[in-house]
Amino acid sequence: MSINRLTGGLIDHASPLQFTFDGKTFEGRKGDTLASALLANDVRLMGRSFKYHRPRGVLSAGSEEPNALVELRSGARREPNTRATTVELFDGLTADSQNRLGSLKFDALGVNDVFHRFFAAGFYYKTFMWPKAFWEKLYEPMIRHAAGLGSISLQDDPDVYDKGFLHCDLLVVGAGPAGLAAALTAGRAGARVILAEEDFLLGGRLIADTGTLTDMSGADWVGTAQAELATMDNVRIMPRTTVVGAYDHGVYGAVERISDHLAVPEDGKPRQVFWRIYSKRALVCAGAIERPIAFENNDRPGVMLAGAVRAYANRWAATPAPSVVVFTNNDDGHRTAADLVAKGVSVPTIVDTRDTAPDMQGTEVLAGAQIADTKGRLGVKSVTVKLINGQTRVIPCGAVAVSGGWNPNLGLTCHQRGRPVWSEKILSFVPGGDLPQGQSVAGAANGETSTHSALASGAQGAVDALESIGLTAQAGDLPAAEDRPVSVSPFWYVQGAKRAWVDFQNDVTVKDIKLSHQEGFRSVEHLKRYTTLGMATDQGKTANLTGLAVMAELTGKTIPETGTTIFRPPYTPVAMGALAGRSVGKAFHPTRLTPSHHWAAEQGAEFVEVGNWLRAQYFPRPGETHWRQAVDREVLATRSSVGVCDVTTLGKIDVQGADAAAFLNKIYANGFAKLAVGKVRYGLMLREDGIAYDDGTAARLAEDHFVVTTTTANAVPVYRNMEFARQCLWPDLDVQLISTTEAWAQYAVAGPNARKLLQKIVDPEFDITNDAFPFMACGEITVGGGLRARLFRISFSGELAFEIAVPTRYGDALIRRLMDEGQEFDLTPYGTEALGVMRIEKGHATGAELNGTTTALNLGMGRMVSKKKDCIGNTLSERDGLNTADALALVGLKPKGDGQIMTGSHLMAASGPVDAAHDQGYVTSAAYSPILESSIGLAFVKNGSNRLGETMRAVNPLEGGELLVELVSAHFVDPEGGRLRD
Amino acid sequence: MRYSGFRVIKEALTGHKGWTPAWRDASPQADYDYVIIGGGGHGLAAAYYLAAQFGGKRIAVLEKGWIGGGNVGRNTTIIRSNYMLDGNEPFYEFSLKLWEGLEQELNYNAMVSQRGILNLVHSDAQRDGARRRGNAMILNGSDAELLDTEGVRKLYPFLNFDNARFPIKGGLLHRRGGTVRHDAVAWGYARGADQLGVDIIQNCEVTGFRIENGKVKGVETSRGYIGAKKVASSVAGSSSRVMSLAGLRLPIESHVLQAFVSEGLKPTIPGVITFGAGHFYCSQSDKGGLVFGGDIDGYNSYAQRGNLPVVEDVVESGVALIPALGRVRLLRGWGGIMDMSMDGTPFIDRTPIDGLYFNGGWCYGGFKATPAAGWCLAHLLATDTPHETATAYRLDRFRTGHIVDEKGQGAQPNLH
Amino acid sequence: MIINHPLLGPRDAAEFVYLGDAGLIDRPDWQADDAAQAFHDYMYLRDNPAGLHRELWFHEQGDRSWLVVTRNTVTHEITNVELARDVAIAQGRGQ
Question: A742, A815, B337, C26: which could form a disulfide with B237 (CB 3.0–4.6 Å)?
Fold first, then answer.
């Protein structure tokens, strides 16, 4: 093992794990992250920056990491942009560096860095404009290939994801000192608590630092706290769980990484679960994030945050180098130095920007000094220190631990756009007053920087949160812990640096911010957008405040006057698979099956998606090689003998009550008040804006009982709107509604032999002869010896036809019985295609014609809209613009000669220009009519009802077609309707 | 200052000392000929064209916050002219043509990238609709191609063709559609307008209108009263709020539309694709992030943020369409406030108050309209007549019944 | 969001379908002299406030009640939830 592996820590030195990085095999330990294992193996170079392709190493030890991004795993499981700092090491892990052309050490795109001065902030807005065509052909492809970060496999993700829902009294976000104290306090009080921690170990800084809690080490105290929490049934401890978003009314989104620490998920286990947590109260104990100081070449591998270096040493027994220089503007940097020394790491010097820097026994402290530069192409080899007296000194080292102070981790506190406020004490923003409803903040996230204050504020935060929902808790005794005051001086960047990085990943330097200021991009929003500061995958967690501080200095304002930065959800990037859960592939939407589905599948039917329904599209027979052959056969068989079609998908609404008729009279544009019992009527519904909405039938089964049918597509919204009318518009009417779409299986039985067939199954006491059960009759009957059923003599096909409904669970039996009984008539099942052909032949409108822009007038049903009653839509249907002399009218089309009418063609005069100015209408539906042995169509044409007989051109420039067509009546088959009444 | 590659090189070699502010941070004058409320894409474009094309002088743009901070900076950067109805398609085609020459005109690289937009179809009915739309586009001088499944597969082999709940049956390809670097549009117009003498006044919130005898005289602002001969409101998302200061009620609701970007990726998705069976559209920025969105949250909101159900709905659709997205991480989401109009169609019109003009109601289609909306508003301000491509965008069309409803959803804004 | 249904208690807003301004309850009299104007205003014009908004939600995945929800459009805070039918009756509809 390398010299960078120390002793102790929370890794299992007895459990070696093999892994590869860029194809080279390394050994790590159980408990390592990929970052700690690489550092222990003396690997500092882990990635390349976004713009200049600068060599980069790890900066942090957490999810704020901007630099050490890798492609984790391989093949279809490859995950680009994965932060090495958050990857829990497992045996066999593979990772590769990314965003490089060539090897990581010799990235050809490193040339960008050589020419960096040409790539200043926003340079691309000022060039690449000539010649014009070169942008898309040359410049942009070049930029795109150089940009981006990692790459995806483009293979289907093999893993599954789940979603879950959790409820709690108190959600505690983060299990550091504040979070643990809060969870213990609330748990002991009996509250339902969720404790979510993004790390795989609880403890936060308690397991990264060396302080004691009373007489225990931090790790030991965390262990006892966790053990106590684990005994409480009312507490759910969720490690490896990142709370990513704060949404309205106490709803939080959280990602639990179930299997990311394994090579592949265990059988049947998801990779991740996305939880929606419904919390009565939430306490954010998300800690703080250290900020770097910007100085010349501060981005070299080995330049790290001091707290991270300390965490690697204490928790992971790893150091980036045997010799580490500390650069700080605050006392916390000294703590890192002390911990490193205790671990046997050499700290030659502490460079402290403060003139009054404290001394440290055995370690040189350079007060009032700054790091002026670093050397080392692929990793720090030395730093150049500018001393208080102006002299410089070069100090060899393998790493620099930088501390510029700590910023409260504000993420969740501003997800609802609440603004943080400035704290002069810690020189950072702390959560403001406008937190999300039900949320409060404790610990370092609230600016409480000592362990003691974190513990105390966590416990008190829990007490207060529970009190606000009527629960009583006691803060209890807290362990004794360090309670050092904050000592930090404002120091953001070293003056005079040529290139000092503020946003590491996006390569934003102090100079870029100055340029942004120079060019007038001075507001925070302009700064971010112009320089891309804070727009990288880390959302500027380590960069935003420093950027703001630089801008503040340039504008001569204070930092809070200059602006604040807020964070948007998610807190850390979330795998889209987790947000999608199981709603992918075939399970993207539910699949609704008709009652005859299984029977139809046995017949070899082809199915088609109709909304969420699957419907039989046609029923191919052996020898038929083209779908049209099946459809033509189904149409001809129906029109010549009898066919059957499952029409269950049509919406069905049961309307009952003394005022049912009065109610329907308001819902439909045409009259329903006087419909006789035992009769069905076609009904047209308008929207309140006067546009045609839906059509169907209403059957009056009793004085106070109707059955309304809707189109398949509008089954749900029509019901919703009828409920609106019932509850909100006419609450006085005695009427009740219920959707019965799923309750009844319904079949259309159509064709000259329809009655003969039905007479075989309808129980004999029900007379369905033409006299007893004429066209538009309806009734409740029984079939097959007592099964209750409903029979409607209605026809969509234009033939003698019935629709018969039985309770859904008998739907399968009914279709089989019909097919048996129908053998003598050669009963032919038909699907949606034949249904469509026959309705076009008959000129019936469907969704293609009732397309949300057409009126009853357009549809040729203008006279149906009653002017004598109040009904939805009739007032606004009278507006002039909907009743112009040249209003569109529905007509039929037949080709002049051969040719196929294409739906979506536009109609032009027979001669003259073909352009939008001469557009006269469009084809809504078209089909081949096997009866007419011709293509036919339906179209809306300006003033069409007065132009029958005219020849027009149906143009389809999209596919290069143009067809002469004749405008005819839309009723191609049996225009008088004699067959319906047979 | 003129931008050029030469200038970039020269400045690079001399320490970038010569760059000057892209636009002046102007202070308000006592009065103007034209005051445009709203320093977004539309307002800045209107000011630019008013000065550049219509000889307008003494023009001010008033912005409550910082220019470009509204919807022009909070969208998914798509440009297209793939509308169907007579009232719309000529306007959007005019806009697309303006985009095609914009960067040279403004001397600002807004990264107009005509990468093509593909609207997928998943049923015969959708294909029929695509044909009607595609034909309307061609008849209006735009471009469209109808692809079958194999044609789609050639462009996007990684879509879910084999295990889809709603199989891909083809698509309508609009090659001249594409993307633009959205912030650069605001900055480019601001710079162009500034160079023509337009005052761009930031941190200047309009708090009222001074109206006498039915005629507007000026506006009250957080920086004092500013007189004006003509005032135009171009404040999408806040239209109702601003126009209510003049006593007007609008056929508009404000809704939040969320959009998202993934972590940066090497080139993955060449153009813009829209899913026809769910709420998802996606493109990839030059920086590498997948930029995607879906439907509005669906309830009135001024909050510039949304909720989880829509996030999940959009991502479900995305992964259903592109299964490889499962391992791509969503980096950031944001919300913009949309003027949702009652038929999904915007307004560029005079108001009942003399001298007060209104541009709004853009739903979530305002970004692509930026050049033409600016031009047409400038035309209206300068001539008091609507531009020939914007004659349908009248405020009184619901009274007259001349509705322009592309989606056929009627007077329910959250369905458009 | 969570809507506190007056009959069923707190429910996720995803169970509901949104319609819009509760003014849609106040459907004008079709026989009034100004019916055309009144229906235009009713159908198309909105206050669209930034602040408290009374609005209609339908509990589609639930008991199929229409609710009038009073919600702040800036903060999304919900301060009152009523059955729309009660509101309609209280406003004198159906007299």
Answer: B337
Token pair in block for residue A620? 């191919």
Domains and CATH numbers, chain C: 2-27+34-90 (3.30.2270.10)
| C-alpha span between A962 and B95 (Å, rounded) | 29
Q: Could you give the ipTM of this predicted complex?
A: 0.99
Per DSSP bridges, beta strands B289-300 and B252-264 are antiparallel
Whether residue B89 lies within 8 A of chain A, CB to CB, comes out as: yes
Going along chain B from its start, the domains and CATH numbers come out as 24-81+83-108+182-251+343-415 (3.50.50.60), 117-176+253-341 (3.30.9.10)
Burial of A743 (0-12, 13-18, 19+ CB in 10 A): middle
**Which pLDDT score, from 0 to 100, does residue A146 have?**
87
What contacts A296, CB < 8 A, 6 or more positions away?
Answer: A371, A372, A373, A374, A494, A497, A498, A499, A500
Cα distance between residue A936 and residue A892, in whole Å:
7
User: Phi and psi of B244, rounded to 5°?
Assistant: -65, -25
How many interchain CB pairs under 8 A, A with C? 77
Instruction: Using the predicted structure, report yes or no on whether residue A1 has a pLDDT greater than 60.
Output: no
Q: Which amino acid is at B188?
A: G
Residues of B with CB under 8 A from a CB of C: 238, 240-241, 244, 249-254, 298-303, 307, 309, 342, 398-399, 411-414
Contacts of A76 in chain B (CB under 8 A): 324
Residue entry with tokens 């503020």: A502
Chain A residues in contact with B108 by the CB 8 A cut-off are 125-126
CB contact under 8 A, B136 and A906: yes
- Which residue among C25, C28, C43 sits closest to A728, beta carbon to beta carbon? C25
A72 and A88 Cβ atoms separated by less than 8 Å = no
Contact yes or no for C20 and B241 at CB 8 A: no
Give me the phi and psi of A302, to 5 degrees please.
Answer: 110, -20
Q: Which of A442-446, A562-566, A796-800, B106-110 has the lowest mean pLDDT?
A: A562-566
Nearest CB neighbour to C48, from listed B250, B303, B307: B250
Which chain C residues touch A868 with a CB distance below 8 Å? none
Of A519, A585, A690, the CB nearest to B320: A585
The answer to whether C52 faces chain B, any CB pair under 8 Å, is no
Asked if B171 reaches chain A (Cβ–Cβ under 8 Å), the answer is: no
Does residue C89 sit at the A interface (CB-CB below 8 Å)? yes
Query: Per-residue pLDDT tens for A784-827?
Result: 999 999 999 999 999 999 999 999 999 999 999 999 999 999 99
User: What percent helix, strand, coil does chain C show, rounded to 5?
Assistant: 25, 35, 40
CA angle A702-A705-A710, nearest 5°? 125
| Tokens read off for A76 | 């279809």
| Distance of alpha carbon B349 from alpha carbon B343, whole angstroms | 16
Q: Alpha-carbon distance B333 to B354, whole Å?
A: 41
Instruction: Kindly tell me if the per-residue pLDDT of C95 is higher than 90.
Output: no
Q: Which tokens in the block code for residue A570?
A: 């998610």
